[in-house]
Amino acid sequence: MGVWHNADGTLDPVKVRAEYPIFKTQPGGRPLHYLDSAATGQRPQRVVDAVSKFLFTANANPHRGAYTLAQMATDGYEAARARIAAYVDVPASELVMLGSATEALNLVARSWGKANLRRGDVVLVTEAEHHANLIPWQQITREMDADLEFIPVDDVTGEILWDRLDSLMKLKPKMVALGHVSNVLGSVAPLAQIAEAAHAVGALLCVDGCQAVANMPLSIPATGADFYAFSAHKMGGLFAGGGLWARAELLADLAPIEHGGDMIHSVRLRDADF
Q1: pLDDT above 90 for 158
Q2: pTM of the model
């Protein structure tokens, strides 16, 4: 049992609330009741403490130096990667640490799309996508002269209309992009079924998993996804943190869309290896 549980194993909401410093405030003179966790989660005290400890004891760039602070930062960074990877049931070597889910989805759209989309190719997204999993596909399909088609969803439940999806699969899309859990309705996409349908026509599946990672037990491999993006701030972490999981062979083929920093092997005046 965790520190937030009663002796009988049930979760104690009072103990949970006490872990979050923001609930000690009273905006407008009233107790705070926060109902916007789909947009961002609040930060528990242990996160605040961990950030403070890093800033006060190990503030350095990970993977950028051999001195003690840099090594401590690197060890902490890689320990975080390993814990996050274990949480979503993937190898740490397949988890890319990024600044946000938006950055992760843009990386997939820009890098994979640039290398693989050609004129007339089809990308499918649902009508209910968050902007972060829609606009990158709008941009890359326009740039590559590919076609962007939309999977209809039920107006009430937000669930995918399967008859229409089956019809769209006949277009043999190269990529299917959708959210795992809706940030508006909470509807859960049956990813394993969608992945099976996508893979049957040679398509890949790119998933915005921000709401799922924050709210349900998750084994990413069990979803059948080929790319899976999520953010830290939806699950109690800080802004400017996120992750991208992809199958190892897909990661190996993703060209970087930003250059510099610790990606570099060697630099010369006119070129570089990375």
Answers
A1: no
A2: 0.91
Given a cut of 70, is residue 219 above it in pLDDT? yes
Separation of first and last alpha carbons in the chain: 45
Number of residues that this document lists for the chain: 274
Two structure tokens written together for 110? 């820009």
Angle between helices 162-169 and 191-200 (to 10 degrees): 20
Across the beta sheet with 227-231, what order do the strands follow?
95-98, 242-246, 227-231, 204-208, 175-179, 122-126, 147-151
Given this structure, which CATH class describes domain 93-253?
alpha beta
Q: Are 129 and 149 within 8 A, CB to CB? A: no
Give the list of residues 6+ apart from residue 66 with CB closer than 8 angstroms, or none: none
What stretch(es) of the chain map to CATH 3.40.640.10?
Answer: 93-253
CA pseudo-torsion sign 228, 259, 255, 168: positive
Dihedral sign of CA atoms 260, 261, 262, 268 in order: positive
**Identity of residue 164:** R
**Tell me, what's the pLDDT at 9?**
84
Bridge partners of residue 86, in order along the sequence: none
Which amino acid is located at 200 in the chain?
A
Q: What are phi and psi of 151, to 5 degrees?
A: -85, 120
HSE toward the beta carbon, residue 232, CA cutoff 13 A:
21
Separation between Cα atoms, residue 181 and residue 175, nearest integer Å = 19
